[in-house]
Each structure stands twice: as C-alpha cells, then as structure tokens.
Write a structure and sequence with these properties.
single chain; mainly alpha
C-alpha cells in the first residue's frame, strides 16, 4: 500500500489504543498493531496498482505517485504531532528497507553486482511470507492501472473512519 494508507492506519490504531487502553499498554499495543498493520497492508497490496519497481517512463504511474506523495505529505503534516508513534511504526518496515538498507545494498552491488549482502535483513520478507501463506488466492493487480480504484477506496474508507473517530489534532 502507499504511504498515506500506512499513515492513516497508524493514526487509527494509535487513536483506538490510546482511547481504550491504559499506559503502558496503549503504547505497546500501538507499536505492535501498527507494525503488524504494515505487514498485512503490504501483503494485500497485490490487489492494488503497486508496482514493485519504478515506472519512470509511464505518465500514469508518475501522475499517480505525485498525487500519492502530495496526499501523504498532507497526512504527515496534519497528524505527525499527536500521532507520530502510530505513523512511525506503521511505516518502520519501509523506512528500514527502502531508506536505510536499500541504499547500502545498492552501494555494495556497485562493487559486486552478485552481492546478496543484507537481503536476509529486509523486513519485507515477512510481508512476502504472509502474502504467500494467507493471501495466495487474491488476484495479482500490481501492474493494472485500475487497481488505483481499490487504493482510493481504502484511503476514502480510512478517512471516513478517522472522521468518525474525531482525531484531536492537538496533544491533550
């Protein structure tokens, strides 16, 4: 799923945990459920337009990602102060794999193209395991542009849920 989807789910999880659980269980459960949410959301991402590689020559892909990046930035700036924990943990797998491990791995591959350094440390391996064990029956739509409709539906649904939860944009 896209960054905004993880952001919204992280916010919802933190709101629910902090509403219904006492300290320190609210923090522990936010961390646990936000982390697990990333695994399950990414395992389900095969039903959305979520190409595993960049499609630099595809105008549709570029426009879609400009929209997603803009919405993600907006969600980040709206929710980061009170809901930073849920958002951070809901995105920690991507932060580790894409922002930390991948650049190091690519540098190692420049020197040795056959290098498998770090592959066992990618957290998305768990996502692939969950997808193969639980969601093997889902249609693979990663490259189908109509898959954005599913992601848009999910984003709208999460936004409506947030509206009903009435998130406070201030630390209370």
């Amino acid at each position: 799923m896209e960054l905004i989807t993880h952001n919204l789910i992280g916010v919802i999880i933190q709101i629910l945990c902090f509403t219904f659980l006492l300290f320190p269980l609210n923090i522990v459960c936010t961390i646990l459920f936000a982390y697990l949410s990333h695994i399950f959301c990414d395992a389900l991402s095969i039903i959305t337009y979520h190409t595993p590689d960049r499609q630099k020559g595809d105008k549709f892909w570029i426009i879609w990602h400009y929209i997603i990046y803009l919405l993600s930035a907006i969600s980040f700036f709206i929710f980061i102060i009170p809901y930073w924990l849920g958002m951070l943990i809901a995105n920690i797998i991507d932060i580790w794999d894409w922002l930390i491990l991948r650049p190091i791995h690519n540098k190692k591959r420049e020197k040795n193209p056959e290098s498998k350094w770090g592959e066992k440390y990618y957290l998305h391996r768990t996502v692939h395991w969950v997808r193969n064990k639980l969601f093997f029956w889902l249609p693979v739509r990663e490259y189908k542009k109509s898959g954005i409709m599913i992601e848009i539906f999910i984003i709208i649904t999460l936004s409506i849920i947030l509206g009903f939860l009435g998130p406070s944009l201030f630390i209370t």
